[in-house]
Amino acid sequence: MLYRKMPKNGDDLSILGFGCMRLPLKEDGTIDEERATKQLRYAIDHGVNYIETAWNYHMGNNEPFIGRMLADGYRDKVKLATKLPSWLVESREDMDKFLNAQLERLKTDHIDYYLIHSLDGSLWDKVEKLGVANFLDRAKADGKIINVGFSFHDSIEKFKDVVNGYNWDFCQIQYNYFDEKYQAGTEGLKYAAEKGLGVIIMEPLRGGTLSKMVPPSIDKIWDEAKEKRTPAEWAFRWIWSHPEVTIVLSGMNEEAHIEENLRVANEASPNSLTEAELYLIKKVGHKYHELMKVGCTGCRYCMPCPEGVNIPACLEAYNYLYMFGNIDDARNKYATWSSGIISIGKTGFASQCIQCNKCVKRCPQQLKIPDILEHVVDELEGPELQQNIDTVKNKFNKGSKVEC
């Protein structure tokens, strides 16, 4: 495992961090704790020393699980990160209540890396007025927080405002070869590094979009490379080639993915890609921009929908339609994901949306989700929908493979 230093404190941190937002699940939707514990401890035993959770992950069940997982001496092997849910904070007292609850959930007396979660300009203004600087100063003085940072989803201008608004130790931004000019982007990466902040990267694969169900036109470009690598490896190597990056978080939930990421994290040094490889990756990024209709990362912050819409599944099926151009496959996937076949009878169709806009307020990508869902209805529902549902149900009942 390769390590990089956190600039302000000198911590040697594994370049691969374990992001716990997408842990493996059981059929009832709860965390598969036995499997997730094995995965996390395996990663830690192989050099990963940064574990990231949050108050809201897995409907509030993630932090308590991580607290249990870090028993048997594993807490001492890692730097633990979690986040203040900024959108739930209504007073200065709330900040202390959340932190104290998190310490109890995580079964620890301190948080090594504590972030103000999912800041945009308005949320930063809110928590700043409520006294977040005083909260962080006091928590650090009391030893409850060791290092303070923030995660961010907004424009580069707002990002600079937040960077300059407090004496942060680190920040966390969305960054990948598709998002060079999105939100903080490359400019924000370099700005934070110049200010002496460690930079932690989230969404290196854009929720898997850059690594799963790769369109043929993208595969064709990757085939031009002299050295053959998986799309995931290309994406990680591109980020780690930036010397300003401290850690890349991966939401690993498959054993094979963990093995691959550990292998690459043993090799990916700064500035290690050739000019030809960088050009190839840029070419892939341009092609994805041509193909991708919706910038959803599948983070599920929009969930649960009050009306039961399976928003991430609807947007994934919609993206699939435009990335692969196969209307029949897209409609079958939409029927599979939204008809209740694999969700215990609960439908999640885009047409269930009543335009309440609660999802818009939660979306880190600032997507106008209700408007997009109208397009999903136009493209993927209609008179053929019931036929698609019947086709998928028939395959499911016969035990045939149903793509999920």
Care to describe what's here?
The longest helix has 17 residues, at 275-291. 43% of the residues lie in helices and 12% in strands. The strands form two sheets. It has an eight-stranded parallel β-barrel, surrounded by seven helices. Strands 1-2 form a two-stranded antiparallel sheet. Helix 12 crosses helix 15. It folds into two domains: 3-288, TIM Barrel (Alpha-Beta Barrel), CATH 3.20.20.100; 311-397, no CATH class. It is globular. It has 404 residues and is of the alpha/beta class.
Which sheet architecture does the biggest sheet show?
A: 8 strands, parallel, barrel
- List the domain count as a whole number: 2
CATH class of the largest domain: Alpha Beta
Strand order of the largest sheet: 3-4-5-6-7-8-9-10
CATH superfamily of the largest domain: NADP-dependent oxidoreductase domain
In the predicted model, the low-confidence regions spanning at least 5 consecutive residues are: 399-404
Tally of helical segments: 16
Helix content bin: 40-55%
First and last CA, distance: 33 Å
Looking at the overall shape, the CATH architecture of the largest domain is Alpha-Beta Barrel
- Helix and strand pattern: EEEHEHEHEHHEHEHEHHEHHHHHHH
Please give the radius of gyration in angstroms.
21 Å
CATH topology of the largest domain: TIM Barrel
Instruction: Tell how many strands the DSSP assignment holds.
Output: 10
- Please identify the oligomeric state: single chain
Helical/strand content category: alpha/beta
